[in-house]
UniProtKB/TrEMBL annotation:
Residues 149-181 form a coiled coil. This is Small ribosomal subunit protein mS26. Belongs to the mitochondrion-specific ribosomal protein mS26 family. One of its GO terms (cellular component) is mitochondrial small ribosomal subunit. The keyword Ribonucleoprotein applies. Pfam families: MRP-S26 (PF14943). Residues 14-99 are annotated as: Disordered. Keywords: Coiled coil, Mitochondrion, Ribonucleoprotein, Ribosomal protein, Transit peptide.
Length: 240
C-alpha cells in the first residue's frame, strides 16, 4: 500500500512487520516515526523517478503532494483520515457502514440484535399469553363453580318438588281406595237388603202347603201367545 492512502476498512491485528507498518501509517505516523519505532534510520527522500507505462496502469490516487521531510499530517481523531470501522468520529457519531469487508460483520450484528429482540418479544408475548390463559382459567373455574352451585340448587328444588308431588299422589291414591271400599260396602249392603226382601217370598218347608193351597185357589194361566210385534195375546175367559 502506498504511503498516505486512505484504506476504508477495519484495522486488523498485526501479524507481521508489514501489518505493523500499515497500522503505524493508519495511526497517523510518518516515515520518521516508523523508522524510530523499528530502530531503523529514516530514509532520506530523494528524487522520485518518473513512472513507466506499466506503473501508470497500476497507479492509485495519492494524497496531495507535501514538501520533502514533512511528517504525514493525519491524526487519530481526524474523521476524514481515520478508518471508518472501530473509531468514533469527532462529533461522536458512529462511522459509516463499510461497503465491502465490514458489511458481513455488521449484518451479522444486526441479525443477532434482531434475533435477541425477537426472542425477548417472543418471551414477553409468551409470558403475557400465559398470564392471560391463567386469568381466563381462573375465570372459567369460577364460572364453573357458580354454574355447578346453581344447577345443584335447581336439582335440590326439583327433587323436593318431586317428593311433594309423590306424597300428594300417594294421599290421593289412599283417598280413592277409601272411596272405592266405601262404595263396595254400600253396594253389598243393598244386595243384602234386597235378598232379605226377596227371601220373604221364597218357598220353604214351612210355607210349602200354604203356597200350594194358594195356587189352587187362584189359578193362573200362562198359556198365551205373542204376536210378531211382540204383543201378548191372552185368552178370554168363558164367563167374560
Amino acid at each position: 500500500v502506498a504511503c498516505g492512502l486512505h484504506v476504508p476498512c477495519c484495522p486488523a491485528a498485526a501479524s507481521g512487520p508489514r501489518d505493523t507498518l500499515r497500522h503505524a501509517d493508519s495511526d497517523g505516523l510518518g516515515h520518521a516515526a516508523r523508522a524510530e519505532r523499528f530502530g531503523r534510520a529514516a530514509p532520506v527522500p530523494g528524487p522520485v523517478p518518473a513512472p513507466g507505462p506499466a506503473a501508470a496502469t497500476r497507479a492509485r490516487p495519492q494524497d496531495p503532494p507535501r514538501p520533502a521531510g514533512q511528517v504525514q499530517g493525519r491524526t487519530r481523531g481526524d474523521p476524514a483520515r481515520s478508518g471508518s470501522c472501530g473509531i468514533l468520529r469527532a462529533d461522536g457519531a458512529l462511522p459509516a457502514v463499510p461497503p465491502n469487508r465490514a458489511r458481513p460483520q455488521v449484518l451479522e450484528f444486526v441479525s443477532e440484535v434482531r434475533r435477541k429482540q425477537h426472542e425477548a418479544r417472543a418471551g414477553v408475548l409468551a409470558e403475557r399469553k400465559a398470564l392471560e390463559e391463567a386469568a381466563e382459567h381462573r375465570e372459567l373455574m369460577a364460572w364453573n363453580r357458580a354454574e355447578n352451585q346453581r344447577l345443584q340448587e335447581l336439582r335440590i328444588a326439583r327433587l323436593r318438588q318431586e317428593a311433594r308431588e309423590q306424597e300428594q299422589r300417594r294421599a290421593e291414591e289412599k283417598a280413592r281406595q277409601a272411596r272405592e271400599a266405601q262404595a263396595w260396602a254400600q253396594l253389598k249392603e243393598q244386595e243384602v237388603l234386597q235378598l232379605q226382601e226377596e227371601a220373604k217370598t221364597f218357598i220353604t218347608r214351612e210355607n210349602l202347603e200354604a203356597r200350594v193351597q194358594e195356587a189352587l185357589d187362584s189359578p193362573k194361566s200362562y198359556n198365551w201367545a205373542i204376536t210378531r210385534e211382540g204383543l201378548v195375546v191372552r185368552p178370554k175367559h168363558k164367563g167374560s
